[in-house]
Structures are given as C-alpha cells and as structure tokens.
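SEQUENCE-TO-STRUCTURE ENTRY
===========================
What this section holds: a protein sequence and its matching fold, both as plain text.
Tokens: labelled as protein backbone structure tokens, with as many entries as the chain has residues.
Question of interest: how does this chain fold, as expressed in backbone structure tokens?
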Amino acid sequence: MKSTFLKELGKRLREKLTEALVSVVPIIGLVFLLSLTPWVELTYKELAVFAGAAIMLIVGIGLFNVGADMAMTPMGQYIGEGLTRSRKLGILLGVGFAMGVLITIAEPDLTVLAEQVSAVMNGNLLIGIVGLGVGIFLLLGIIKILFHADLTGILLFSYMLLFCLTALLIDSGKGSFLPLSFDSGGVTTGPITVPFIMALGVGIAMTVGGRNASENSFGLIALCSVGPVLAVLVLSMTSRGELNYSIPDYSMSSILDDGFRDLLGDNMLEVGKSLALVVAFFFVLQLTVLRLPKTRIIQILFGILYTFVGLVIFLTAVAMAFMPIGFKIGSQMAHFHPALLIGLSFIIGNVVVLAEPAVHVLNAQVAEITGGEVSKRQMMMALSIGVGVSIGLSVLRTYFGFSVLYYLVPGYLISLGLSFAVPRLYTAIAFDSGGVASGPLTSSFILPMVIGACATLRGVPEVLDFAFGVVAMVAMTPLITIQALGFKSVLAVRHRDQVAMRRILAASDDQIIYFD
C-alpha cells in the first residue's frame, strides 16, 4: 500500500511539474526575447539569476499544486461537510469568520502589497483590516450558501455600497487611496486562501444539497474580494496626514548580496504561519467534529509539506528575480518606447496568468463541478484575454494619467448587467475568477512593472495615483470575459433552437403519415 501511494505521488508530481513548465516557459521566453532588443538592457548576471529563479518557480508551482490537491482542497471540503452535517449553525459561522480573518492575515500576497505601500500606510494595520473584511464577507457567503440566496443580488448591493464609499472618499479629498483600496481586494484571494475557501464552499453546498448545489458552491471568492475593498475604503477615510510615497528597493543586488537568507527565512516564516493557522483549526475540528480516518490525515500531512515547500520556493523566486526584472522592464520600456509598452503589457498579461498557482486550482474545480460544461481550456483563454486587456489598459492609464474609476465604474456596471443575461453558474464562476487571477505574480511582477513605468513617465509622487489599481483591473476584466463566454453559449443554444423550429415549420405535409 505504501509503494502504491508513493508511485501515485510520483506520477502526480511529474504531471504538475510538466504543467508548471508549460505555464512558465512563455514568461521566460518573453523576458529573454526583450533582453535581445535595444529597449531593455539586462546584464548577464540578471539573466542568469532570472533563469535560476524561473526553474525555482516551476518547481514551486508544481509542488504547490500537488499540495493543494492533497491537503488544502480536501481540508476545506472536509470542514465544510463536517460542520454542516453537525447542524450547529453558530459553530459553522464562527469557524468561517475566524478562518477568513486568520488565513487572510497570513496570506503572502497581502504581505507583498503591504510592504510596497508601507510608506503611506501602516502595513500591520492594513493586513488586519483586510482580514476583518474577508472574515465578515466569508460569513456572508456561508449564509448565502446555506439559505440558497441569490449571488447577483448580494453582489449588486455590495458594489453599490462600495461605490457610495468611493464617492465619499473622493469628496473627503483622499482619492489617492482609491487604487490601493481596490487592489487590496485582488491580493487577498491568493494561493493559500483560494483552494481552502473554494473547497469550503463546495463542502457546504454539496452537504446542504438542492437542485443547484454545484452553482451554489461558487461565489465565496467573489464576496471575499469585496470585503477588503470596503474595509480599506473605511480605513482610508479615517487616515490623517499627507501621502509621501517612496518606491521600495527593487534592485536585484540588494537581495543577492545582503538579503537572500533573510528573504528565504521571511518566506518560510510567512508561509509557515499561514499554514499553521489552517492546520491548527483543522486538527481542532478533527478532534471534535470531523474524526477522519488515519490514512486521510497522513495524506493531508504530506500535502501540507508539499504546499509549504512549494510556496516558499515560489515566493523566494518571485522576490529574488521577478520583482526586480518587472520593475526594470517597466522603467526602461517607458523611457525608450512607452507606446510599445502598452502593447507589450497585453502580451505579458496573457502569459503571466498561466503561471498563477491558484488559477490552476480554480480551473480544475470549475471543470469538475460543471462536468466539463466549462472546460479548463475555455477558462484559461477567458482569463488570459481578460488579464492581458487589464494590464494593457492599466499602462495606458499610467501614460495619460486618469483615474482608475474611469475603468472600474463602467467595467463593474457591464459585469453586473451581464449577470442578468447569462446563466447564474457563469456569473458565480466569473466573479470568483476575478479574485483568483490577481495572484502572487500580479503583485510581484506586474505591479512593479507598472510602478517602474509610472515613475519614469510621471514621477515618483504620482505612483500611488496612477500605478496602483492594476491588481484591481486584473480582478475586474475576467468578470466580463467569462460572462461573455456564458452569453455566447446562451446565444448558441438560442440559435440551435431557432434552427430546429424553422426545420419543423418548413417540413412538408407529405412527410406526415396519416392513419385511418
């Protein structure tokens, strides 16, 4: 039995490493191709470090995806099923709120964002407020699943409230906090949060049952992306003092010469802290409610180990090379050819989403829950197009210098409008996808690239206004592209029905057989 388990584990690891290799190769090729042009000058040392970091990235993504399949997803599903079967509503809601707060506080994506804005806002306070927002809206999401509430109605009300607070923030003269507020919603749904929360929703929905149980399982990620935005908007309204943004040190030499051990140690601490919170909660529930067999616990422990090692390697690779290279590409391209950077940003967005770990988790769950109705390939194409468009539009905004609201307001209006015209399943998947697409590479490669471009084009003081907001854009555009996919399927079904009806009406009476 042990031999069979190890063989299956080895096979799964090879498959995940192959998927990771295919996902990361386009990014590697794009960076090396740019280094051959006169627009981007990268030293041999930088290219060598980037190549090594890319290998680390592949290994990290592969290990993480194995760990997510073995531990994070089953843990979330077991907790959802076990607590729902216990019929103790108070415990289910209490655990949901606590898990939302604690997992978010330790989410690596959020830590990356907090470090990049520490000059204008207390990082620990930002993380705590965002965690509170996620906890409250995860609680709301669980209630929505239990009582089969309409996701579209909840989202419509939430975004109306969100834009009312946005108007109040602008009126108070603190509009510079807007891009950061919207970005906070995208980074909270990262590689640790997504597998757990999605599986938690599936576990609760399948246990509650009902005709639309599969559809009802989606939506938790969508709601957990709204809560942080509302929380940071409120925090921004209470802030005092002037904003004096300064760009973090993105140089590769500062990490390689002085801080590699510190970086590795910090990542081990952050990932370990985050996983410890999840594991501690799980084992408390295992002893009190779940009581799973020993074989499943062993599998979960193996998965936790893979998740830990994979995420540490992934985050170290990103900070060591992808963040500095992203900043350098943005600043140099903006200096030599800003118009070309806009087009290049679309291509970069298309390939970067392929390497986001949580995207693969989402695509696999969507394909499984929908029974293949929405395939992995369809999801990846819709996400790639959406993320590419969002990054291209973000660089365009940086170039011309206008508010991110010129994108977000019509974008969310279109998204919410489409939700009334497409099957509810597509709406739920689309709003979940928005949070998932804006993962670690977005905050650690794309955001530094746009910051570099903005600092070159507009100066450092303008970065907070015109560079931040790119994560929010990445979180918004998949809402439109995936619902457009659903709208296309609706039109296709309607067209088939019309063709069938025309054939029936055009049928000759001679084909009808009469009986005496």
Remarks:
- The two ends are 71 Å apart (CA to CA).
- The longest helix spans residues 294-336.
